[in-house]
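[Q] Does anyone have a clean structure-token version of this?
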Amino acid sequence: MWIADGWKDYELIDCGGGEKLERWGKYILVRPDPQAIWQTPRTDPRWGKANARYARSATGGGQWAKKEVPDRWTARYKDLTFNVKPMNFKHTGLFPEQAANWDFCGDLIRKAGRPISVLNLFAYTGAATVACAAAGASVCHVDAAKGMVQWAKENAQSSGLADAPIRYIVDDCAKFAQREIRRGHTYDGIIMDPPSYGRGPSGEVWRLEENLWPFVELVAQLLSDKPLFFLINSYTTGLAPSVLTYILETLVTKKYGGHTESQELGLPVTSTGLALPCGATGRWIGK
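[A] Here you go.
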């Protein structure tokens, strides 16, 4: 498991009973987590004194049952600064376990010794975009949600990267990739964080188990002649990390060499010294 243990502005204090107790800067949040199926004694008084708590509804969905926090605040990770905004569907705009991947991409970019271009697909609020730009890469950031792309611009600005070579695109990722292939554009690094399930603007249905293979097959055509990395994130609980290894080894290693490593991502839990699993990542690394 790759553990995101470099945080100071985020802490997973405790988890269990389908919830996690977190510190985001100076604010304490309680949010659902489907992986935390064990029980915890909840002896930490902050369980009962959280600044915000998201409660699941018996009929599906949920809402913030308590929300005594600002509309937004910032959280720093090393030299990066992100805008945190609690949203209607339990999210805050930041997945702290992904810091392990920000470090991975940033280290490769810094050590490359040449200009690196990165394509970030399903790029959400742009934490990976900001991390790659801070390491010196030019980045093409693509997401279908206009609001998320605007949020990514705010994160870049907060991190002192407002003038960094980042191209922001509001578009369907598959359609954008197809156009980039026709234009002959290529990238040295590719990051994708596809949803488990979603619907496109014209009603197209995306199911990760059905669509991931053809999507990676498509996007792999955008790799340069000397690619640096290809990273896939998956939050689909039934998908083993080794599935991502199989896909990347078949579609990328066979053509470019290099090798693939896949693991779960995890967050250290202060109360137990254990780690909460937070999805899988496959990393292809070039020669």
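[Q] Thanks! Anything notable?
[A] The mean pLDDT is 95.
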